[in-house]
Amino acid sequence: MNKSLLLAPVCCVISVAAFGQGQALTGQVLDPTGRPLVGATVVEKGTNNGTGTGGDGRFTLKARTAQPRLVVSSIGFAPQEVSADGGSITVRLAEASTSLGGVEVVGSRSQNRSITDSPSPVDIIDVRNVTTKTGQLDVNQLLQFVAPSFNSNRQTGSDGADHVDPATLRGLGPDQTLVLINGKRQHQSALVNLFGTRGRGNTGTDLNVIPAAAIERIEVLRDGASAQYGSDAIAGVINIVLKRSTKELTANVNYGAYDAKYRFDDRDFDGGNFNANVNYGGAIGEKGSFINATLDYNRREHTQRANVPAPDGRLRREYGDPRVTNTSAYVNSKFALSDKAHIYVFGGGNKRRGDSYAWTRFADDDRNVPAIYPNGFDPIITSDIWDVSAVAGVRATVGGWDLDLSNDFGSNRFEYGVRNSLNSSLGASPRITEFDAGGFQLQQNVVNLGLTRNYKTVLEGLNLAAGAEWRRERYSLFAGEETSYANYDPAGTPDSLRRAAGAQGFPGYQPSDAIKATRDNIGIYADAELNVTVRWLLEAALRYENYSDFGGTLNYKAATRYNLTDFLTVRGTYSTGFRAPSLAQINFNSTVTNFIGGQPVEVLLARNNSPVTQKLGIPSLKQETSNNANIGLTSRIGSNLSLTLDGYYIKVKDRVVLTTQFSADDPVIGADLRALNVGQAQFFANAADTRSLGLDVVLSHTATLGTGRLNSTLAANFNHLKIDRVRTSGRLAGREEEFFGAREQAFVKASAPPSKINLTFDYQVGRFGALARFVRFDKITLINWDGQPDNYEARVTTDLTLNYAVTNNLQFIVGGSNLFNRYPTLFNPQLTESGGAWDPVQMGSNGRFYFAKLQARF
């Protein structure tokens, strides 16, 4: 691809004739008590024209239509539409409770709570604004470069994790963050991460199944919340709020590609990423009923970064990001039954197909069959993933209580395939190069009943909430076809002449691996929020849950917020938490068969209750537990400057990790493994206690610059994770350094860099806008296959985006991410975890990315 193709649309935009300027609109947005609302959104209806309020709640907006109407919204308040015929406008927003659950604010069940009143730190990310001004297209990457406490990076050379990006909050595990959609629990992925540098041994939620085009905003609660929401909320909660706009059609076409500096062939660009989506919301009747639907298609091509030879001179022929195709459909809806009751339905489906590179098999490799691949081959691991979710419920006001009854179903099915491969034990005939390798599926069904009530006359306001939840989970692992795992060498073949069994790149799951497992969980909770005075808030929550496979757990949370002055607030929380081991961690099993002395010997990742783990005294998995403390302050320094500081302490006990492999030559357990005909084995175990200490900082400033507005933000996360203790048991007691050694510990510590700092300048003047962003990723250390440290140095990436409103309804955006083409530190490809010149680290490993977008709104 020639660079001029990407620059051509810019020339088209510059050549567009100037448009007449509309009338200047000014105004102020206030809360119900008359206080200014900072950061409220003001949008001219039916256009891309919008702005935000400053520190004094005021805004200035140049209208583009003859009779403009403004839609004004702010988190925790009901949106309001007003006419704007010139002059100054004052808008006083009503509390969200007037819309009967119309607004969700994670971290609180009080519908009267605005985000600035929260005793816990919450980030609000306006997805429409982010997608307009940045080059990232999927949810994981959007959050990676916007929220400093959030970390996610694309994997390569990591089997299933190449297709499902693991994501974390505050440097904890992917499965220690709870994900909600419209306040309802989202199911996890069926995948358990086994390889790669992120989330090893963890499951997690696949955020990328939800198209950004369907999302209104994302709320990130950076605080332990198990007492409020249940399992997985040790690090925090991500709540994805779907769009509910009506009488508006939006459509987007996006394309971008990487500058292939490290290239294997003569391409100038690779990793082309095409996305097209459409969203429409229609009103039904006069009582707020609506249906909002989104269709989204995304195709991302391979990148090629296999350019750095190993010391022996060999060069992997294929190495880089996988090819992934996503097709999604999501809907959000509400149907009024009366003024006091409505039904809601939301959910959708995602179909994903992926191709990722496995390690190169060279021509002289004993796993190759030269008659099939005379020059060697690169196996391709394919994925076929179906993800669906559906939530239906009713909200009603009954006897002064707001009632919410819902049923939530979700399913994730992951099927592996292998192509451009072979089973070397089959020889050259029959010539089989494609295999069905099996896979797994996770299903979840949740029935939830919640009650909330607000007493405005109890001191300065009391909000009570209580509820119960029943959840059933089902997990299944199914085998691949026989040729994907079997060894076809004739009986009696000497070991020295035996060929490797199964599909190269990814041997299929065997029938002995297959399993079906279920469990039930019942939870009850109660929480209260009391405004003792106008300035002082107290909050408490208590939750009990009982699991059919390991028993019960009781957790609590206490929080407070105090307004020292109108411009300075202090807040603090303390909570206990838990995370139930996932059904995948309990039941996953993988077997590869080798032959030793003519006898089949198994290499196992053994499920938790298998004969191997029982023989070695590995106990049944139990819940992880945590203690979480947060103390912070928020301040408005003058009318246009705001600051939040939040320090946190998180102690997690009995973390579930994946242990080191133990061989049949082990001096202690080798005899036991040989007796079970096992050559190598590793396990999931509650083996580590960790402690995290960190600080989140957000500094925001709004200024008038010429005739435009400049918004500046400095956001940073500083995080230090320490492994306090490694726990061993049974026959492996006292062997901590071998059970969960330095290499495995390094992967846990590298879930987040010690610091991530984001500095953003966002300028808007008339129809033109520009965004410049600098992100600094701190250094991290991993341990390579030789046991030596690989020290990845700190890097700064630079992004620039330019946008122009071609018409009132059409906007063009062009820009670049990582403009200075920064790459991670290079290492020996034969010694890294991924088999490339670098492991996947937070900044990414594909270099400069150019993009262009066309957005239409009617």
Care to describe what's here?
The model is unreliable at 1-21 and 97-104 (pLDDT under 50). The protein starts with a helix and ends with a strand. The strands form six sheets. The chain has a 22-stranded antiparallel barrel. Strands 8-13-14-11-12 form a five-stranded mixed β-sheet. It folds into two domains: 1-94, Immunoglobulin-like, CATH 2.60.40; 105-857, TonB-dependent receptor, beta-barrel domain (Maltoporin, Chain A, Beta Barrel). With 858 residues, the chain is mainly β. The radius of gyration is 28 Å and the shape is globular.
Supply the CATH architecture of the largest domain: Beta Barrel
The low-pLDDT segments are 1-21, 97-104
Whole-number count of domains: 2
The gross shape turns out to be globular
Distance between the termini: 33 Å
Work out the strand percent.
over 45%
Alpha-beta content class: mainly beta
Please identify the oligomeric state: single chain
- CATH H-level superfamily of the largest domain: TonB-dependent receptor, beta-barrel domain
The name CATH uses for the topology of the largest domain is Maltoporin, Chain A
Q: Notable features of this structure?
A:
single chain; 858 residues; mainly beta; Immunoglobulin-like; Maltoporin, Chain A; 22-stranded antiparallel barrel; five-stranded mixed beta sheet; 9 helices; globular; disordered N terminus
